[in-house]
Amino acid sequence: MPADPIETSTPLAEISQGPGAFELFLDKNQKGIVVFAIVLALAAVGIVVYRGIETSRQETAGAALTKASDLAAYKAVVDGNADTKGAGSAMVLLADSQWTAGQQDDAIGTLRKFLESYPGHPAVPTAKASMGSKLMSQGKSGDAAKIFEDLTSDPDAKFLAPYALIALGDMARAAGDLDKARESYEKVSNYPESNFAETATKRLAILKSKAPVEIDAPPTPPPAPSAPANGAQTLPGGLDLAPVEDTPPSSEFDTQPIIPPSAPPTPPSPAPH
């Protein structure tokens, strides 16, 4: 028989009973961890407070905007609620009020400032269209065309693309480029749901019609001869026929009254015999 294995007391492995590495880390960095936790908690509270304050600012600006109705009120919203969506919207409305008041350059400047300060504002496409139309009214077709072309390629401004195309067509027609004008008007058909589709159709009809031919005006007829002051009639050849006037009698005979003839005399009676 094989001999029984001899059991020994040698352990297979030793189990450490000391603190683990993680526990040692906690012991060494406990203070730092506590400080970090406090900072993290304060940051979370700060975010909540900031959001609350920001929400309050936005709501305040929105409330002020709903009450504004004139140039001075819109300007007050802009100055008192900087960096809020309400202030951005107020700038667009302020520009329209300035334009109506005759402050054209100030209106365009306000729109430029809005586009620079609020690039992500929902009213950016509307502000661009407004500025383009104002520049167009001032005769600055080059600057206006750039804005309208930008609107036609902006996916966020799809609802304004038909309007921009008509504006581009109008400027091309005014410049005598009928082919470019026709191309712009025809592109509006890509937006059949737009209210500007009918406008584009009318523009095309006018564009295809020929201008009327100008002719010389007929000569002015000579004035009709005026009647003589004394009432005379003009005969052919320029002779005047004077009217017959009632004249008083010119002779004594004419002044004698007309006596009717008396009865014939009675013949004498025959003499008696």
How is this fold's topology laid out?
Layout: H1 21-67, H2 71-80, H3 85-100, H4 104-117, H5 124-137, H6 141-152, H7 161-174, H8 178-187, H9 196-208, E1 233-234, E2 240-241, H10 252-255
Antiparallel strand pairs: 1-2
Helix pairs in contact: 1-2, 1-3, 2-3, 3-4, 4-5, 5-6, 6-7, 7-8, 7-9, 8-9
**Total count of strands:** 2
Rg measurement, Å: 54 Å
Q: Helical amount among residues, as a percent range?
A: 55-70%
Total number of helices: 10
Biggest sheet descriptor: 2 strands, antiparallel
Read across the widest sheet, the strand sequence of neighbours is: 1-2
Strand content: under 5%
Whole-number average pLDDT?
75
Estimated structural class = mainly alpha
Give the terminus-to-terminus CA distance: 245 Å
Helix/strand order = HHHHHHHHHEEH
Question: Brief overview, please?
Answer:
The chain is mostly helical and 273 residues long. Helix content is 56%, strand content 1%. The protein starts with 20 loop residues before the first helix and ends in an 18-residue tail after the last helix.
Describe the fold and architecture:
With 273 residues, the chain is mainly α. Helix content is 56%, strand content 1%. It has helices spanning 21-67, 71-80, 85-100, 104-117, 124-137, 141-152, 161-174, 178-187, 196-208, 252-255; strands spanning 233-234, 240-241. Strands 1-2 form a two-stranded antiparallel sheet. A hairpin with a 5-residue loop joins β1 and β2. The N and C termini lie far apart (245 Å).
List keywords for this structure.
mainly alpha; two-stranded antiparallel ribbon; 10 helices; 56% helix; elongated
